[in-house]
Hints:
Elements: E1 6-10, E2 14-20, E3 29-34, E4 38-45, E5 65-72, E6 77-87, E7 90-97, H1 114-119
Antiparallel strand pairs: 1-2, 2-7, 3-4, 4-5, 6-7
Amino acid sequence: xxxxxxxxxxxxxxxxxxxxxxxxxxxxxxxxxxxxxxxxxxxxxxxxxxxxxxxxxxxxxxxxxxxxxxxxxxxxxxxxxxxxxxxxxxxxxxxxxxxxxxxxxxxxxxxxxxxxxxxx
Length: 120
């Protein structure tokens, strides 16, 4: 299996992964999220069955076999909001980002008079 070319883009609201997976059909492409925010993209292109018996190849350059690519997603990736589309041999996976955490507001602690606390 040769290297599967991919681009990973960091957009303002999402991570977008674009992968060349030429020669596959939609039902041959699989996108999964495994433990630890690991995105796994896989597929398999099998040799077409020949209609005519007795056909032999003179040259085979088109890629056959399994595709497998893994991407470690950042902590702010929302693994519940992932979409994928496949068109013209290119798979596009979009992983939305979680909203940034709200900054913690400072907590005010009331200071008591130490003499009054001893008397009470």
